[in-house]
Each structure stands twice: as structure tokens, then as C-alpha cells.
Write a structure and sequence with these properties.
Distance between the termini: 42 Å
Radius of gyration: 20 Å
Largest sheet: 10 strands, mixed
Keywords: Oxidoreductase
Order of helices and strands: EHEHEHEHEHEHEHEEEEEEEEHHE
InterPro entries: Gfo/Idh/MocA-like_OxRdtase_N, Gfo/Idh/MocA_domain, GFO_IDH_MocA-like_dom, NAD(P)-bd_dom_sf
Family: Belongs to the Gfo/Idh/MocA family.
CATH class of the largest domain: Alpha Beta
Shape: globular
Number of helices: 9
Protein name: Oxidoreductase
Number of strands: 16
Structural class: alpha/beta
Helix content: 25-40%
GO molecular function: nucleotide binding; oxidoreductase activity
Length: 331
């Protein structure tokens, strides 16, 4: 294996072209060597636009390329399981977009396939690799805001007019809980360093959008009577804040998951007043790629192993069940 991790991109999704590929290209330990589409012309055009050496007209051709070390999968949610398993069987390490799968059982099956093949499988929650989350976690564990009493968060945007959006296909794993609700759930689990005990979610399932949840609001209960209250949506104004409330202070993150340029700073309020915490500039996509490269090239442990994705899917399963059945689900 070379000194840099050689990536193949399985699909030409906008998240890949806009964010992940440039992030990998700007990182220290990665290079994007190939991209594949089911349409050769589409793959060739993407390769030319993004300065990628090789373009394949099928996913199978990319997986057969022995020079590729790792595969990034930005395909629609319902294809994550199939192509992650096929990539594992081809001996490729895998970075798969969130949510990793459609169910906890699917995620466990994907993890088993990766383990059997001796490759790493990671979920592409890029936000958590940004250095500010270490800073936030350190403030919490140091007692800067006292005991944590609760977390509030949201992730909403409005793309409701685009009826051809894959996020609006129920059989493809569409819906706001899968697409953006997964972020507050993941962040709360990280910051509290524990797993939920129960969930209650109310959702708006839109007949105009194949009955996927276009908006959802939830309460997720953790041990010690601490909870996450969150909402997520694809038919609401854009926002993605996070707030950690403690007995002695407050942490406010205006843009918790989708970062504007130079928008990583957050705020700490204590008895000494409210101050802005400056965060070093970093590309979360580059950091994510370098972390995975360190694990593969230098045999370092993944900070967020596949088990974390399985646990997150368990909570998502419960949220969807609660929303459909309109009842509290105990985990």
C-alpha cells in the first residue's frame, strides 16, 4: 500500500463532488484515484471536473481495480448495505454516508461482512472530526458548565419543492429522521457518552412526498434523567444549532453540523458571562479522511468504530417506530 490512501468514489452524488472529494484532495494522507457511475459519460465528466485520474462506467469496475484501497459510498440510503458488502468482499475499506443503513439489523450485517473481509467500515459523520467537538467535550467533562441537565438541537432545511429528490422516496430510505435527525442523535450520544433508554417522536408524514417524514420532533431519554430534545425537517427554514445546558452554564453552537465558512466558533456562558470560543480552522471532510487513513495505513484504532453506527441505527429505528405508532419506545 502506498504512503497515501487511494480512494475510489462509488457514485457522483452532489455531497461527493461538493464536499467529500475536495476534502480528501486537500488532506494529508489521501488521494482520489477513481470515480464510478452507472453512466460512463457522467463518470468521465465528474472526473474531468474534479481532476480525478480514472473514470469507470460501472460500480463493479471500480471495485475490481486492485490499486484502490478504500471506497466512499454516497449512494441513496437503500443502496448502502448492498454496496458496502460488495466493497468489503472486494477487499476495500469503506466510508459510507450516513445513515449507515436503513435498520440496526442491516448495519450489523454490514459490520459482519467488513469484519469477515478484514476491512474497516466507517460512517461518514464528518462533523464529529472537527476539532471543536473535542473542545466542547472537554468543557463538559471538566465541569465548566456543571452537571449536564439537557441537550437541545435541530437540523432543518427546505427542499420540499424538489419532488424528484431521492430523500422523498420512502422505499429508498427517505425522510428527515434518516437524513438530518441522525445528527442530533449522534451528537448527544457522543457528548453524553451514553446510550438512550427511551424515545418519543412525533412526525409529519407528507402525502405530497411519498409519505416520508418531512418534519419530526423528539425526546430522547438518557440515563440520569438527562434528555435530548430535537427536531429535524426537510420542509422548514434552514438551521442546525446545538445547546448543552448545565447546572452552572451553557454551551451554544449556532451551526453544529453544516458549517458555513469560518463558522466553527461557539459560545460558553458561565457565572463570568458569555464569551465566544475561537476554534482553529479545519476542513471536517479532510479530518475525517485523514483519521481513516491513519487507521488503515498506520493501524490506529477508529475513533468511531462500526459499533457506533449500529447503536445510532438502533435509536433511529426506535424514533421511526415511535413516530408511526405514536408511542414511547423503550430501548
Amino acid at each position: 500500500m502506498s504512503q497515501k490512501l487511494r480512494w475510489g468514489i462509488l457514485g457522483c452524488a452532489s455531497i461527493a463532488k461538493r464536499s467529500v472529494i475536495p476534502g480528501l484532495q486537500q488532506s494529508r494522507l489521501n488521494e482520489v484515484a477513481a470515480i464510478a457511475s452507472r453512466d460512463q459519460d457522467k463518470a468521465t465528466q465528474a472526473a474531468e471536473e474534479l481532476n480525478i485520474p480514472t473514470a469507470y462506467g460501472s460500480y463493479e469496475s471500480l471495485l475490481a481495480d486492485s490499486s484502490i484501497d478504500a471506497i466512499y459510498i454516497p449512494l441513496p440510503n437503500h443502496l448502502h448495505k448492498e454496496w458496502s458488502i460488495r466493497a468489503a468482499e472486494a477487499g476495500k475499506h469503506i466510508l459510507c454516508e450516513k445513515p449507515l443503513a436503513l435498520t440496526e439489523a442491516e448495519a450489523a450485517e454490514m459490520a459482519e461482512a467488513a469484519a469477515k473481509a478484514g476491512v474497516l467500515l466507517a460512517e461518514a459523520f464528518m462533523y464529529r472530526y472537527h476539532p471543536r467537538y473535542d473542545m466542547i467535550k472537554e468543557l463538559i467533562t471538566s465541569g465548566a458548565i456543571g452537571e449536564v441537565r439537557g441537550i437541545r438541537s435541530a437540523f432543518t432545511f427546505n427542499s420540499s419543492a424538489n419532488h424528484g429528490n431521492v430523500r422523498f422516496r420512502k422505499d429508498w430510505g427517505g425522510g428527515s429522521i434518516y437524513d438530518v435527525g441522525c445528527y442530533p442523535i449522534n451528537a448527544a450520544r457522543i457528548l453524553l457518552d451514553s446510550e438512550p433508554e427511551a424515545v418519543t417522536v412525533q412526525a409529519f408524514f407528507s402525502p405530497e412526498h411519498d409519505h416520508v417524514d418531512m418534519m419530526a420532533s423528539g425526546l430522547i431519554e438518557f440515563e440520569g434523567d438527562v434528555s435530548l430534545t430535537f427536531d429535524c425537517g426537510m420542509w422548514a427554514a434552514y438551521r442546525n444549532p446545538l445547546e448543552v445546558v448545565g447546572t452552572e452554564g451553557l454551551i451554544e453552537v449556532p451551526f453544529a453540523y453544516s458549517l458555513p465558512e469560518n463558522g466553527a466558533n461557539f459560545f460558553l456562558t458561565t457565572g463570568d458571562g458569555r464569551k465566544e470560543i475561537e476554534v482553529p480552522h479545519a476542513n471536517a471532510y479532510s479530518e475525517q479522511g485523514d483519521h481513516m487513513a491513519e487507521a488503515i495505513l498506520n493501524n490506529k484504532p477508529l475513533r468511531f468504530p462500526t459499533e457506533d453506527a449500529i447503536h445510532n441505527m438502533k435509536v433511529i429505528d426506535a424514533c421511526l417506530q415511535s413516530a408511526h405508532e405514536r408511542k414511547r419506545i423503550v430501548l
